[in-house]
Design brief:
The protein is built from 9 helices and 4 strands. It is mainly alpha-helical. It has 2 domains: about 1-135, Four Helix Bundle (Hemerythrin (Met), subunit A), CATH 1.20.120; about 160-205, no CATH class.
Amino acid sequence: MSEHLARAILFRQNHCCGVLEMECRKAAIIVGLEPSVGFLHDFSSYQTKQSLVYDLMEPFRWIGDLATMQAFESGVLDLKDFYFTGDDYRYRIEIEAKRRYLQLMKERFNSGVRYKGKACRWDTVILNKAQDLARYLLEESKEMDFIEPCPNLQRSDTHDVRRGILELTQREAKELSIGKSTLHYLRKNAASDMPFSACKKTACRLVG
């Protein structure tokens, strides 16, 4: 687990943060904000260190964190995808694994979210937040909100649900309209470390 965690942190830092940084820089440039002048991060004269871009990234870092966890849980990334080269003790990743991960990040950014009564992609939300910041700086707006939309991180395969499935008898499963084959796969999934989906109605009954 510690090796998975180390690689997850490394991969998140080097790849998903890079994708998020690109989206935030693009939003700042489109709106007309100066990427190097931020509020939370120190100003830097280095062209590659753009404080405002890092500020815009903060409310959305969870997207990369979630994508990284899903990548390891689903098998998109695995320990065998990482390796050392030379004597510099730096991790490398297989090209195909990187492509799979970037596809997962693309799907995450393209996933829909309700914002201001509309279904938006996350890159659209980032652009809207940059626009809100510009209006606030120009005093066209008295306030701005970086809280909404809140991430929905609820899972159906909680520890209580897993325990309920493993303790479920054939008779109880029948009362819940769960067939033998379905119960077999539910038990198999509940006993593993892999994520799985459980019917909301069934999950509620399992946890009482």
